[in-house]
Write a structure and sequence with these properties.
Number of helices: 11
Shape: globular
Helix content: 40-55%
Strand content: 5-15%
Structural class: alpha/beta
Largest sheet: 4 strands, parallel
Strand order of the largest sheet: 3-2-1-4
Order of helices and strands: HEHEHEHHEHHHHHH
């Protein structure tokens, strides 16, 4: 199957993207002899979509989602993550990692001044636990980040980007929404509507939203697609915003170089 152009938003292309992702997960696991996969399930859209894709590719019995909660994890996230596993008929492991995060903070010979320090400790603690499960069971850990986040460096090295494969690492966030809606339209493997409708958040701090650090994905993706691929025009009045996004894109190249390989979707 040929790679797709990122400016075609029709349902046919959304189906083609899903087919590439499902086949990519299946082929990767067969090539490297993995029968099962594990992933961190946050109650957010990206991990819920990766759960659905993995279940379609490998079967629900071979997919093992884990909710690694902290004091910042909302009840809504736990409820939605639980609902996603029930709809997809997978097992579900829930662990409170806050005591581990607290122990890290107490062990540090300094008091963190930058709030990102504590936030990254949470993400990296999740990575440690997920890798332990992957190692002990011979499973493949799937990273759940999307292309929009990776482009802006909105991810934690050795944390949420841990894993051997990043299934949606070449999928823009706006296409993540389209893929989730497609699953629900078909009524086969579900992404809870509550996950699709809620504002995206990393939940590493109280009241945190993706839009605190990023432009709305509808704006960001259009600019990224134009800058990376040159397919989509953007208004001249957005020149300042384009420059900010372009500069951040280049500044975050060191992160993208360390993210697990993604299933190639776009040209």
């Amino acid at each position: 199957m040929q790679n797709l152009k990122p400016d075609n938003k029709c349902e046919t292309t959304t189906r083609a993207i899903r087919q590439k992702l499902v086949e990519g997960i299946k082929d990767y696991c067969e090539k490297y002899n993995f029968k099962d996969v594990v992933l961190g399930l946050s109650g957010g859209l990206d991990s819920a979509l990766v759960l659905a894709l993995a279940c379609e590719a490998l079967g629900a019995n071979h997919v093992h989602p884990m909710m690694l909660k902290t004091k910042y994890t909302s009840k809504q996230s736990i409820d939605l993550a639980t609902q996603a596993t029930q709809l997809n008929k997978t097992d579900f492991t829930e662990i409170d990692i806050q005591p581990i995060v607290d122990s890290y903070l107490k062990t540090l010979p300094f008091t963190p001044k930058n709030p990102v320090t504590e936030q990254n400790l949470q993400a990296r603690t999740r990575g440690v636990i997920l890798m332990a499960y992957a190692n002990d069971n011979g499973w493949l850990l799937l990273a759940c980040g999307n292309k929009s986040e990776a482009a802006m460096g909105y991810c934690t090295l050795y944390g949420d980007v841990c894993g051997g494969l990043s299934p949606i690492g070449d999928v823009f966030k706006t296409d993540v929404y389209a893929l989730a809606e497609l699953y629900n339209q078909e009524g086969k493997i579900f992404v809870p509507q509550g996950i699709i409708d809620r504002p995206p958040s990393a939940e590493l701090a109280h009241g945190q939203k993706d839009t605190d650090s990023l432009p709305p994905y509808s704006v960001l993706d259009k600019i990224l697609k134009h800058y990376i691929y040159g397919h989509l025009p953007v208004p001249k009045e957005q020149a300042e915003e384009i420059a900010i996004i372009r500069n951040r894109y280049h500044a975050m190249a060191f992160k993208r170089a360390q993210i697990p390989g993604a299933i190639r979707v776009y040209e």
